[in-house]
Design brief:
Layout (H helix, E strand, L loop, with lengths): L2 H7 L3 E8 L5 H11 L5 H13 L15 H6 L6 E6 L4 E6 L7 H8 L4 E7 L6 H12 L4 E7 L8 H18 L4 E5 L23 H7 L13 E2 L2 E3 L11 E5 L4 E3 L3 E5 L3 E10 L2 E3 L1 E3 L3 E6 L10 E4 L6 E11 L5 E2 L3 E6 L2 E15 L4 E4 L3 E2 L4 E13 L11 E5 L6 E7 L21
Helix pairs in contact: 6-7
Length: 443
């Protein structure tokens, strides 16, 4: 496979997430998309038809294709993130159908954290509501590069162009103010199938793509020249066999950018340098490897490298620091407090850390800041200052979503507490003083 072919193949997978208020029709949209794109197996469709009939519905409830939990089906809502994998002739997809309830904000953060596109659904009868603005804000915080505004239930407003235009104008203005780089508005009816997979005869005033056409053609950026190349080391390979007596390789999945044989690299946090002597990919030697490929890198010099280290180009090495300021979403039921002792997992490295300060909590309804709340509870988004026991090579989340993110873990039981994004967000905190920690993990 040539380099050009490999680069093109890397763009054929799109990760996207759906979000919206309760009863806006997210699960129905996903079900319609899977059904009309012929991505549903016969036995799955038969099960949905049987479940729909048992509930007294004459036609299949396509929402049941994604709402798999019993509580979801009973209440008619989405509770957990439902992942679906499907493909068309033009592209492969990983879809995350996320909940709409305010109390499940953390679930949307989970689903959208790796998405290249976010779909925000709006009921055409209700327009932009509080939850719509909340989901737009989360997409902006997570630096999702593409946002689709799907104005659903157009059949219930007589397919009026003026209704769609007003909603699209209001949402676009709000999302643009947050810094969302690209916004595409599409009028649809998930229940009737208008503009989901097939173009609607009821909205001849709309000249844009259908929902699926946009998903198939939206550009997925894998610009190898501008990404900060990063390889978190997962495993050191030393066969020590007669065939490979001196083999020492450093294996991991490339988090960002590209690596080339002969390139000067630095190992962090130690700062030691060398050059790449070889790259093994799927048992074969290659000259270049890039984002998401799992590789084994060999260096010209014997360096003490272990799991948790980060290999980067010497000319583009991030600074290491023990003081991290980040935007976080708290996902645990127990609150996160100032002075909280945690484990911080960044890439393949886990270190002890202390929450030194919580400068602000973000109110997503109006994007206002509540200064120094003292703690963050489940679903809260806020700013935190963290001191780590060891230096970490972190990027800004704005520069790299993979190496600019981390999670905080409860050292007592391993529970994930918080998801973090290093650097500034669109809601910058007020300056705060750093207070010394009195006891415990003082570093």
């Amino acid at each position: 496979m040539t380099t050009t072919t490999q680069q093109l193949s890397a763009t054929t997978l799109l990760r996207f997430a759906t979000a919206g208020s309760v009863d806006d029709g997210k699960s129905t949209l996903v079900g319609r998309l899977l059904h009309d794109s012929k991505s549903v197996l016969t036995d799955q469709l038969e099960a949905v038809e049987a479940a729909s009939l048992s509930r007294g519905q004459e036609t299949p409830d396509l929402a049941l294709l994604t709402d798999g939990l019993r509580a979801e089906r009973e209440q008619g809502i989405t509770i957990d993130v439902a992942y679906r994998y499907f493909a068309t002739a033009r592209r492969r997809f990983i879809l995350a159908d996320t909940p709409g309830h305010v109390q499940y904000t953390r679930n949307m953060v989970t689903g959208a954290s790796t998405a290249e596109l976010a779909v925000v659904l709006v009921d055409a009868r209700n327009g932009v509501v509080e939850q719509t603005r909340r989901h737009a804000a989360i997409a902006a915080l997570l630096r999702v590069p593409h946002v689709v505004l799907a104005v659903n239930k157009m059949d219930l407003v007589a397919y009026e162009e003026s209704v769609f235009a007003a909603i699209a104008k209001e949402f676009t203005a709000y999302a643009s103010e947050l810094g969302v780089p690209e916004i595409t508005a599409i009028p649809i009816s998930a229940l009737a199938g208008d503009n989901v997979v097939d173009a609607s005869a009821n909205m001849d005033w709309y000249g844009g793509p259908t929902f699926l056409e946009h998903l198939e053609t939206v550009p997925v950026s894998h610009d190898l020249t501008t990404c900060h190349a990063r390889l978190p080391v997962q495993f050191v390979i030393r066969p020590q066999t007669a065939e490979h007596p001196d083999y020492r390789g450093y294996a991991g999945q490339i988090a960002a950018g590209a690596f080339r044989v002969g390139e000067a690299v630095t190992v962090l946090p130690s700062g030691r340098t060398s050059r790449i002597s070889a790259i093994d990919l799927l048992g074969e030697a290659v000259d270049v490897a890039w984002t998401t490929q799992s590789v084994t890198v060999l260096l010209e010099d014997d360096i003490d490298i272990s799991r948790g280290d980060l290999i980067v180009p010497t000319k583009d090495a991030p600074a290491t620091t023990q003081d991290i300021e980040a935007t976080v979403c708290h996902v645990a039921d127990a609150p996160l407090t100032v002075g909280h002792r945690v484990l911080l997992k960044h890439g393949t490295r886990t270190v002890k850390a202390i929450v030194k300060d919580i400068p602000s909590r973000l109110t997503l309804d109006d994007l206002s800041l509540h200064p120094h709340p003292g703690q963050l509870v489940a679903n809260d988004i806020g700013r935190v200052k963290i001191r780590t026991a060891e230096p970490l090579p972190v990027d800004s989340y704005a520069d790299s979503r993979r190496t600019g993110s981390f999670i905080l873990i409860d050292p007592a039981d391993g529970t994930t507490l918080t998801a973090g994004m290093v650097g500034e967000s669109f809601a910058s905190p007020e300056p705060v003083k750093t207070e010394a920690d009195d006891d415990g993990w003082d570093f």
